[in-house]
């Protein structure tokens, strides 16, 4: 199985260009196809820098486990010590209730693990209207595509979040996304340094992920696009005017990173190698083991995102015909999965929002068909 095989299986008309990377039994291959912009003639280069969007989350989860190993935090400790703004939470009777209405006290404090497992009690509510999520969007907390210049600075962001009640009791329900923004703030306070510095020193540098970070240079950055109702593509974020060219106002642990396919493959390889010199094997097991109950996986807030799978720390965990796989996708068109039983990791990189099921599905089928042969 190599990167060229994956690219050959993709429906080329759905994206202007794509990158693929495979690490199989220690051997790595990278390949590119298509162009960097629709209608253009500039080939998409294999070392292109792209917006990782939600593939930021696995890196933030790994950083959490690294800082826990250093004794800077404990997974079962309340967040109150580092984030006192979130102490003594109040909880709504139901997610659709008025955030200014009746609430009850949280039965226990939020814990660090609640953030890792996205069971903090706040996040997306795909099952229906939610006035609290509407309020969060009005407060500028970020409920859309990543925008490193569109959020308030961290202290202001956290103070605004603290005005909102929880939708559910801590630890009881899986809600996508918001908890990893909180987790990034907690890690910065635990280390006493800005999140970009902590991530670079404790995770990216040891792994040789030299092209990953919260800021991109224009030399290899490629534009990102959004798909319209007519399926045409419009520029979401360009290159010369990219919002990733300057340090972010809010280093966002949900989806703020840029990087390359090769770097993402290095991270995946570290997990396949039982953490290498970065994480303890037990930490890798924690990351890649489903922590949800069957009821949480099937709940309306989780099912559209998990699609029958579970959730570890920063990664989805799925059963497949060729064995368990774990990994995650980014809304701007990045996808990574590892099949540990086959010592294989594969990444796919495009820059189109939203990614199409045809492209992501072709990627997964190509890998699993090859593994099943």
From TrEMBL:
<dbReference type="Pfam" id="PF00144">
    <property type="entry name" value="Beta-lactamase"/>
</dbReference>
<dbReference type="InterPro" id="IPR050789">
    <property type="entry name" value="Diverse_Enzym_Activities"/>
</dbReference>
<feature type="domain" description="Beta-lactamase-related">
    <location>
        <begin position="6"/>
        <end position="366"/>
    </location>
</feature>
<dbReference type="InterPro" id="IPR001466">
    <property type="entry name" value="Beta-lactam-related"/>
</dbReference>
<keyword id="KW-0378">Hydrolase</keyword>
<dbReference type="GO" id="GO:0016787">
    <property type="term" value="F:hydrolase activity"/>
</dbReference>
<dbReference type="InterPro" id="IPR012338">
    <property type="entry name" value="Beta-lactam/transpept-like"/>
</dbReference>
<protein>
    <submittedName>
        <fullName>Serine hydrolase</fullName>
    </submittedName>
</protein>
């Amino acid at each position: 199985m190599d990167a060229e095989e994956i690219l050959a299986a993709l429906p080329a008309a759905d994206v202007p260009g794509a990158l693929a990377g495979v690490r199989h039994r220690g051997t790595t291959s990278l390949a590119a196809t298509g162009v960097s912009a629709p209608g253009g003639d500039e080939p998409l280069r294999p070392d292109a820098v792209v917006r990782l969007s939600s593939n930021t989350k696995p890196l933030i989860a790994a950083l959490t486990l690294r800082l826990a190993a250093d004794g800077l935090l404990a997974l079962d400790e309340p967040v109150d010590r580092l984030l006192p703004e979130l102490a003594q939470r109040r909880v709504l009777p139901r997610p659709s209730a008025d955030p200014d209405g009746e609430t009850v006290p949280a039965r226990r404090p939020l814990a660090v693990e609640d953030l890792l497992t996205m069971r903090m009690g706040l996040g997306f509510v795909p099952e229906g209207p939610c006035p609290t999520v509407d309020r969060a969007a009005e407060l500028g907390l970020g409920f859309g595509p990543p925008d490193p210049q569109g959020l308030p600075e961290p202290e202001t962001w956290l103070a605004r979040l603290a005005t909102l009640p929880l939708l559910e009791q801590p630890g009881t329900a899986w809600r996508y996304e918001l908890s990893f923004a909180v987790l990034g703030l907690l890690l910065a306070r635990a280390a006493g340094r800005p999140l970009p510095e902590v991530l670079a020193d404790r995770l990216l540098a040891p792994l040789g992920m030299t092209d990953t970070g919260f800021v991109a240079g224009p030399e290899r950055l490629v534009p990102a696009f959004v798909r319209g109702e007519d399926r045409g593509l419009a520029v979401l974020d360009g290159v010369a005017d990219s919002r990733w060219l300057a340090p972010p106002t809010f280093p966002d642990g949900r989806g703020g990173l840029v990087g390359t396919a090769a770097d993402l493959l290095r991270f995946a390889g570290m997990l396949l190698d039982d953490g290498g010199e970065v994480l303890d094997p037990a930490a890798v097991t924690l990351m890649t083991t489903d922590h949800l109950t069957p009821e949480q996986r099937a709940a309306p807030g989780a099912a559209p995102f998990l699609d029958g799978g579970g959730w570890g720390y920063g990664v989805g965990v799925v059963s497949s015909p060729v064995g368990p796989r774990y990994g995650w996708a980014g809304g701007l068109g990045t996808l990574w999965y590892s099949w540990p039983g086959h010592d294989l990791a594969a990444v796919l990189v495009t820059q189109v929002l939203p990614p199409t099921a045809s492209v992501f599905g072709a990627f997964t089928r190509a890998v699993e068909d090859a593994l099943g042969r």
